[in-house]
Amino acid sequence: AGGVEVTAAHSAGRATAAEVAGWGERELLGLARAADTADAQALLVPCTALHTASHVADLEKELGKPVLTANQVTVWEALRLTDRRVNAPGLGALFTREPVVQV
Question: What per-residue string of b and e applies to 35-55 under the rule 16 or more CB within 10 Å gives b?
Fold first, then answer.
């Protein structure tokens, strides 16, 4: 859909948000590595329970590609909808690009 092709899917194998809410960088990096594929242009981490904001830049550096997380994309879209521009490389590559405005 929309020109996006899913190259792989991976689950953390956890049933509840409470189980992953306390994860740190080590667990997030393990999950990201397990989900990543060589042909993927980006990695999506769709769980809002994961505390990813302080780890996105490190994950991107480790994987060599953009990492998009549920919370990060939600904040970015809210800023876009209110016509705000934020350049915050610490929040990942997404926050270093101009948002695409749909007409």
Answer: bbeeebeebebebebbbbeeb
